[in-house]
Write a structure and sequence with these properties.
about 150 residues, four-stranded parallel β-sheet, elongated, 4 strands, about 50% helix, alpha/beta, 6 helices
């Protein structure tokens, strides 16, 4: 995390997700951490944890920045088992996860490292280029022989 003043929890949410977060999750969080601020709108500097609701691409953006990102639905993101613990379906579980990631440096660091490793392995420029070649059939032996011949 860059040096500087701690700014709170980064939030990436559609309207429904923001209402759910504010109405159902944050009262539980603020019962234990009354002054925990929310940073809405894409700023990841000096935050310990992010929440993405209704914005699946934001999960990957956060992980690429080294910030663990809690979400309700990680389906379709292809998260490895090491990151499935960032998914919380109900308000109580999400509040607990936010508080744990905020307060437990070792847990936060473990998810941050796993997130960076996942993004580098699966979503780097090289990984995307390889996937595109695979999709186009360019990495198969048959495609290689067509190009050579």
């Amino acid at each position: 995390m860059p040096q500087g003043e701690y700014r709170g929890i980064a939030v990436f949410a559609d309207a429904a997700g923001m209402h759910w977060l504010e109405d159902a999750v944050m009262p539980l969080v603020r019962a234990q951490e009354p002054d925990m601020p929310l940073v809405v709108g894409g700023e990841l500097d000096n935050v310990r944890v992010a929440v993405a609701l209704g914005r699946p691409h934001a999960v990957l953006d956060c992980l690429a920045a080294g910030v663990p990102c809690v979400t309700r639905d990680a389906a379709g993101l292809g998260l490895p088992e090491t990151l499935r613990g960032l998914e919380a379906k109900d308000p109580v579980a999400m509040a607990a996860l936010i508080l744990d990631l905020h307060g437990k440096a070792s847990l936060n660091g473990r998810f941050a490292r796993a997130g960076l490793a996942f993004v580098r392995a699966e979503h780097s420029e090289a990984a995307v280029a390889a996937a595109m070649r695979d999709a186009a059939g360019e990495s198969t032996p048959r495609a290689a022989s067509r190009r050579a011949g």
